[in-house]
Write a structure and sequence with these properties.
Elements: H1 2-9, H2 14-29, H3 37-44, H4 48-59, H5 63-81, H6 86-92, H7 98-109, H8 113-122, H9 132-139, H10 147-158
Helix pairs in contact: 2-3, 3-4, 5-8
């Protein structure tokens, strides 16, 4: 993702990039808050349409997907490193519904929050000598497509063969 972002930022105005970074920094600092495009555009001082398009060009993902990535990263860390109840983690990381948190978490990571916690607690870890930036990158969810698109593709895979039409 960094390579994609660096390639796409080469042609952008440095002043615009600083504004976009301001919005990205706000998301990073408070990913538990709601960050709709109008609010992010105000932080950046650009129009909503220009912000959404420029953010995706600069960072390789739309603003909402970036926010989801940060929330899932934070939730994963809390599940791994604390004994907080899953419900509390969901609300602390910005989700308004435990069901939405659990469904989105499973869609992105491939396992439920409880399954991740169980697996992480059972695995021996010797991560104290690994730099934090490497750990963050290794645990970053890969949101290359929208969660809704991922669900649609998985639903298409579950359609019985007799209902699928073959395209020559």
């Amino acid at each position: 993702m960094a390579d994609t972002a660096s390639r796409s930022t080469r042609g952008q105005d440095p002043a615009l990039l600083r504004r976009l970074l301001r919005a990205k920094d706000r998301i990073d600092a408070a990913s538990h808050e709601d960050w709709p495009v109008p609010r992010l555009a105000r932080v950046s001082g650009v129009s909503e349409a220009h912000f959404a398009r420029s953010f995706k060009d600069a960072f390789g993902v739309p603003p909402h997907r970036y926010l989801l990535t940060r929330r899932i990263e934070r939730a994963t860390a809390l599940l791994r490193d604390t004994d907080l109840p899953i419900t509390e983690i969901a609300f602390e990381t910005g989700w308004n519904s435990l069901g939405t948190f659990g469904r989105t978490f499973r869609d992105v990571t491939g396992e439920s929050p409880g399954e991740l916690r169980t697996r992480e607690k059972a695995a021996p870890h010797q991560l104290d000598r690994v730099p934090g930036c490497f750990l963050s990158a290794a645990h970053r969810p890969d949101l290359t497509i929208a969660v809704s698109e991922k669900r649609r593709l998985e639903a298409d895979d579950r359609v019985p063969g007799s209902q699928q039409t073959e395209v020559p």
